[in-house]
DNA repair protein RAD50 (Jaminaea rosea), 1316 residues
Amino acid sequence: MATLDKLAIRGIRSFDDKSVNIIQFQTPITVIVGYNGSGKTSILESILYATTGDMPPNTKGGAFIHDPKIAGSKEVKAQVRLRFYNQSQTRMNVVRNVQVSQKKTGNSTALTLKTLEGLLQVDDPEVAKNKRATLSTKCAELDEEVPNQLGVSRSILQNVVFCHQEDSNWPLSEASVLKKKFDDIFDATKWTKAIDNIKVIRKERTNDLKVSKAELEALKTDRDRSEQLKAKKAKLGDSLAEKYERYETLGTEIRRVTKENKQFYDSAVKFREIVNQAETLEEKRRLHQQNRESLRISMTELQESDDELQRRKDSFQDHLSRQRGRRDDFAKRIDKKRSEIEQIERQYSTKLSEKGALESDKKHHERAISKREEEVRAISLELGIRGFDVAGLSDAQIADFKHRLDESVRAAENALKDFRAKSGEKEQDFSNKYQELRTERSSKVSSRDTTSVNAKRIKERMKQATDELEDVNINESDISHARETLEDDEKKLRRIRKELEDANYDEQLSKKNGEIRQLDERREELTLQLNELNRYAEFRAKLDLKRRESEEKKGAADDLVKRHAAAYKTHTGQEAKVESFDRLLTTSISSKDRDVAAAEREEAEKTRSVQHLESALSIARGQLSSKRNQLSQLQTEVKAFLKDEDDANSVDDVITAAEEEVRIRSDELSSDAQAQDFFQRILKVGQSQHECQGCGRGIKDNELPAFEKYVLKKINQLSADGRKQNEQDLQEWKGVLAKARGLLPKEATAKTLQEVEIPKLEKEIEGQSAELGKKSDEAEHASSVVRDLREQQQQIAALKRAAQDISRLVGEAETLRKEAATLESDLSSSGSTQTGDQVQSAIGDMADSIRTLKREANIIAANRDSKRNELNNTERQFFRSQQAVAQKEQELGRKASLQKRVDELKGEWEELKEAERRLEDEIEGLAPRIRKTKDELEAVKEEHAREDEKLSGELSGLQSKARELQETSDRVKRYIDGRGEQRLQDCIDKIKDLQSQTSSVQAEIKEIEAQISTVDKDLNESNATERNILDNLHYRQLGRDLLHIEEDLNKLDLDAASKARRDFESKYHDQKQIENSLNGEAQHLSGEIKSLDEQIRTRDEELKTDYKDIHTRFSKKLVEVKTSELANADLERYGKALEQSVLKYHGYKMAEVNESRVEGWREGWISIRLLWARTYQGSDIDSISIESDNEKVGNRSYNYRVTMMKDNVKLDMRGRCSAGQKVLASTLIRLALADSFGCRFLALDEPTLCLDHETVSALASSLGELIKERPKMQLLIVTHDSDFLSMLSQSIHIDSYYRVSRDNAGKSLVEKMRIR
């Protein structure tokens, strides 16, 4: 058992950090006495800090440590040292160190708390020799290790043993706070969480087990499926080899036929190209002839040779190039001159702007000179300065005037300064006099207010004393009546004590308990006799059991036969009997197996037929899809071409339109040159003669530009660019024509596909689909037959299992019959005079007698307890009567004291009211003098303000005039210094020079433009001659091209090409049909091969992926499931055992605390019920207890509350008790909890707070009895009540106590005092 030995404190709260205060703990009690605020509670806080490391509430920031400001230093180090004996009686030392320092942050000072390294060591030299003396220095480890050494949990140290005064009433706190406290004390939370965790783990593992079982079942199914897949894969491999051989033979035949058809098609295509080439040459010859004829009509034919014409064309181009070069040079010179004019114009504009600004500056300068002279004349007249009222003032005169003006300003400033100094002194004198009078009045007003406040306070105190006096309603007759009541209670108490002695309840209980023991002994003898009889009774019971089980087995077999009789007759055709049930079923099963095998073979044949048709139908649909795609591509290509050609109806229409466009473009090219010459002549005549040669109408001057624009537009359209566009269009139409001719075979193929091949395939697919539907119905019927037979097979299998059960039951019944015969022979030699039932009946009668005696004993005990309770209540009533007499006597004395106090307060109040009236008169006498002084001060201030304003206005006017004159003079000076006149003249000269340069450059530009006109005229006349030379050269080239085209046409064999085309159209279609038929058969085989190959690959993939390592995984999962089942069962057993242990522990502890006489309770426990009966002196509460209501299912979590028994009614104590009852109940609950958890040291801080004298006396007596019952217990009591110390010393032997006080410096001191 652990005990406390000694405590040393330094630097805690009000304890000095320079000295150490020591307390030696005594056994059984240590008392600490001191007035409020002396530092008593700080001792308990230090013990709690040493044992748990917890500082008191609301002490963040260093409030627990001695303040550095009081200590007069920047840093304070505090220490708590506690010496104690641990559970093994080894002396230990625990040291806690903490430091607080103050730091200045801005204008304030902040405290910083720092926990230093602590110490836990062995302080016993004998023990320290064998093991390490220092156990730990880390604070976190100390917080855990010290409670372990004391043998008490941390929560009990915090809430029970060293509970802080602020938290001492926690048993009557709100429900949530109380639950947290009790859960911590009973350690309920830790074990509840452990049980919940076990259940959660078991639930999770159960869910996992369900999943694992499902996975195991799935793995078993997968294992069976993998075996089936391997068998199917082997069958499919054989079928694939057979079909692949046929596919290779077809491939060879198809390649031969395809090669022959390709050769035939290539020869036909070659002759088709010859025909197309001939048609192209014919078209080309026609176009050349048309173009040559057009050129012949529009040109003037020249006789020179081709070489001479080419030389003329080349030299003509050189001449034109030279003329164009000259024109470009002239244009560049004009651009350069125009750039020069633009630059000169920019300079001219800049100079004009500059001239305007300079002229404006000159005007401002002249106005500034005039304004300056006007200001000088005006100021001189205003100030009376002579000699400056004439025109044309010189600079020297102006400077002289400014000097005189500055002297006038300085004189005005000095006059204003002197006036302000004199007026300020005068105002200060009046102000001082005014303030003195106000100060005197304020002082008297303050005195009056203070006197008034004091009078009010005295009056309030007088009223309060009067009210208290009226409330005291006591006289001598009341005291006499109370004394009579006390005498009656004393008589009643003596009467009850005598009745309790006469009843002799203990002797009656002893007699009843003796009778109960005799009956128990007799019942034990009968029990032995019954055991002897039961030895043979066991054989009888076994015999009855064997016979009954044998009959049950036979009955179960008959029930099974009856239950399956109808199904049995259906499948065997005979009535069901137990003897032949299994034999006939075996015959039926063999017959049904043969029927199922035959039906399965028929189903497989039907299924193969359906698969063959599905494969053929798939190939036909693939061919149809391919043909449709080919048709769609051809139609899309033809439609896209037709859409590009303005949505033509057919390719033939496009060819016709393209041939027409080619002819038109060729005609236009031949006529463009003639039209261009015609428009050039119209333009020339229109410009020279103002007449349109085309229509003969005259052209006005204002119409000429529009005429020229129109004719030039036509010439440009017929120029080389226009001709190039026409040639480009001609080539495009030729390309369209060639593309259209290339699409003719594709259009024919599309027509064949749409009208012949696709309808034929659609018809074949329709026939195969109909046949497939028929075959599918047959296969479905065969499958239905198989399903029915299998269902019957399963029913027979179920009957077979029932037959096995019937055979097993019949065999078991026969075995039980033989065992019963053996038991009958064993019992034939035994006999008995009395049966077990008779002995059992006698034991029952004996038990009833024992229960009757126990009820009588309980009634006697209840009567005894009732009489004792009546005695206790009478004793409490007697004590209350004594208290009432003392209280009434005290109230009578208090009444006389209150009357005297009222008279004294009345005299004080009258004196204060007289002083208040006197001060009020003096304040009223000062008011006229203050008003007069204030008026005089205001008058002087007003007079001085007017004079100051006048002088300030004069000074301001002078200063303003001086500033204006100075600004004007500065503007005049800036213009002269900047040479304004000279800059204006230079600008005018530069403008004249720029005008001259502009005229010269414009004349040069006109000369260059005349030369450009001459060159343009020469170039225009040369274009017609060059066009004629080019047309002659083109005309001769077309003639040579026609000769080459004729030669190419003569080389082509058109007759042979026509014959080859007729042969292709008559034979190619039949050959193509043969090729398509072979391809169809090959595609059908290919589809079957791909299908079989895909099925083999799919099954192989399934075996490698879905069923990989299936046997290993199945075995592993089986082991996992069995292991999980065993582990879950272990978890369930462990959880239930732990839950039962927690419930039993909780019930045991609650019984200890409340003295509930349940299982586990024993005499000698210090309970709440016992402590309350010893201590509480009132009659309104019989007893108190802690109730724990179940919060959750399973009785593992509780809601706690403190209840009181009042007139046999249980009520919640919270909210229904007084402050004293709350303090007493909390103290007694802590005492009971400490004893229940085996803690033999306990601290009580101010236990008498709010308690009356009788209860304090009873508490002292109760603590004395507790210490007598627990002589090794250590109590630490902190109190300010010296009477309580006296009462304790009467109940307990106390030699000394500790007194806590404060010295002159306000620091706490602990002194050991002797009790006198």
